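Researcher: Here's the sequence for the chain we discussed earlier.
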Amino acid sequence: MFCKNCGKEVVNNCIICPNCKFEIGSIDTGNEAFIFLGYLIPIAGFILYFIWKDEKPKTAKMLLIGAGVSTAFYAFIFIMILLFYAIIYFIILVMLLSF
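Model: Thanks. This is the structure I predict for it:
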């Protein structure tokens, strides 16, 4: 890996260039707080996943997990509400047709 500022070769896991003190990259810890962010705001989780998937893969994965769980949960709730109303309408229709 090479420094973008001075062009000298640096160690792969290096965050700051030892020659010119230029910040090469940041530490990607994959903090679990990003799961919570992705869950609360799923669209932000999906967008940030695609922005950070190459730069910060661990953090991007946490965002994707949170956004995916949130989307699946809300889809499940939506389907259950639709089924509930379909059953209610069916019961009302049967009661009306039985008279």
